[in-house]
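Weekly sync, protein design subgroup
Attendees: M.S., D.O., the rotation student, P.L. (late)

Item 1: inverse folding check
M.S. brought a backbone from last month's batch and wanted to see whether the design step gives back something sensible before we order anything. D.O. pointed out we never logged the input encoding, so this time it goes straight into the notes. Structure tokens as presented (326 positions):
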């Protein structure tokens, strides 16, 4: 679990894009030649206004009024997680018919997120966010290869913190788009145990940085051949609950056991602490600590950079411990 920092460029890109998208979908596109009323930001490079984007005529009037009321649209686009939760409660109070709810769900999840934002703007958004690995597991990259109509293409993967099956309205809200990997994205979805009213109090939201919520990786040396991953975390803390929700221990203990074994072998298989030798004798005079970590282990060493390469937090913390061993 990694917190997301320094996201202002991605947020600016997302907010401008979404404002034009919603205003055009709700009100149509302004054209001075034909005098069509509606929205147009007139920026020549706007991905929405520079092309002919059409009004969505199926959107129910009552819902349009809801979005136009006060700053509801703004909250929908860039509201903080708790404001999104409150907006969704207000939306529920509209008591829409099933038909109306389905139209809105389709508009947000299918037309806006799945068919437009993710395929057309997801990669750019991810690049601006500059998070290469999944913030939940730090094991996999956030870009995956998908087969679209027989063509393998690179796509961005996002988890919806408020799941889009239950919160379709929030399918495109900035603070609900979490750079994640395919496996974390599909495993949490439909999690039946989550009490959504209390979810923000129980679980970490990656955009809401909480300095007192942290954890570290360690290991238990059970025998010459068997080692277990260990996670140090304050019991029943938000971090603890979040790691449990994402099965972090299970994932690391099973899938990352090979990486752990490699590191422990380096330390214990050879007569000397070979890890220490690498650091102290072999490279130390020529390379910085950071360079050694990247060159030998392929990981970043500063917490703020962990998200750049898979397994950085895990390997860095295990290696630090192995270096201490006599
Ligand atoms: Zn525009
Ligand atoms: Zn993941």
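Designed sequence read out in the meeting:
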């Amino acid at each position: 679990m990694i917190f997301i920092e320094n996201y202002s460029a991605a947020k600016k890109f997302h907010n401008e894009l979404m404002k034009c998208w919603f205003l055009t979908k709700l009100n149509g596109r302004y054209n001075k030649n034909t005098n069509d009323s509606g929205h147009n930001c007139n920026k020549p490079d706007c991905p929405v206004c520079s092309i002919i984007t059409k009004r969505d005529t199926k959107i129910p009037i009552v819902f349009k009024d809801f979005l136009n009321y006060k700053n509801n649209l703004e909250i929908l686009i860039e509201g903080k997680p708790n404001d999104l939760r409150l907006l969704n409660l207000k939306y529920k109070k509209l008591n829409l018919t099933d038909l109306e709810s389905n139209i809105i769900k389709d508009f947000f999840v299918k037309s806006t997120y799945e068919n437009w934002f993710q395929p057309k703007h997801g990669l750019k958004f991810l690049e601006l966010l500059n998070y290469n690995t999944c913030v939940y597991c730090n094991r996999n990259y956030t870009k995956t290869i998908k087969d679209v109509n027989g063509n393998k293409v690179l796509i961005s993967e996002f988890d919806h913190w408020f799941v889009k099956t239950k919160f379709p309205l929030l399918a495109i809200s900035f603070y609900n788009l979490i750079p994640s990997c395919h496996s974390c994205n599909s495993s949490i979805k439909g999690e039946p145990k989550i009490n959504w009213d209390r979810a923000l109090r129980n679980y970490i939201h990656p955009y809401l940085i909480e300095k007192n919520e942290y954890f570290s990786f360690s290991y238990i040396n059970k025998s010459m051949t068997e080692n277990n991953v260990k996670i140090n975390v304050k019991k029943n803390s938000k971090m603890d609950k979040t790691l449990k929700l994402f099965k972090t221990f299970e994932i690391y203990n099973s899938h990352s056991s090979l990486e752990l074994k490699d590191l422990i072998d380096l330390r214990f298989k050879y007569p000397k602490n070979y890890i220490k030798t690498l650091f102290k004798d072999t490279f130390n005079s020529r390379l910085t600590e950071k360079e050694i970590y990247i060159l030998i282990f392929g990981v970043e060493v500063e917490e703020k950079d962990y998200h750049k390469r898979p397994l950085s937090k895990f390997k860095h913390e295990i290696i630090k411990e192995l270096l201490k061993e006599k």
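Discussion: The first helix runs from residue 8 to 27. The mean pLDDT is 90.
Action: P.L. to compare against the previous round before Friday.
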